[in-house]
Amino acid sequence: MVMDTIQIRLGHGLVERIDDLVETKLYGSRSEVIRDSVRRLVLDKMAGIISDKKNSVKEVKNIRGKLSKDIKNFKDLEKINNLA
What we know:
This protein has one domain. Helix 2 packs antiparallel against helix 3. It starts with 11 loop residues before the first helix and ends with a helix. It is an all-alpha fold. The protein contains four helices and no strands. The radius of gyration is 15 Å and the shape is globular. Helix content is about 65%, strand content about 0%.
């Protein structure tokens, strides 16, 4: 999968905490920490729009799968938002 590269600026304390997660082998790299964090943020924001009339567990699993495989840009996020 081809990924876009972005540049972000983070405070020293936050970078230290990210490095702690990598050093404890919870994540393999800083990039993995940040990707997982962004996925969780997007999923959290989407949780409020998922209908409770359907099988929400199945929907959340579907969304998680899409987040981990299909997001290459913000247009992909818009497509995923239409799943709910």
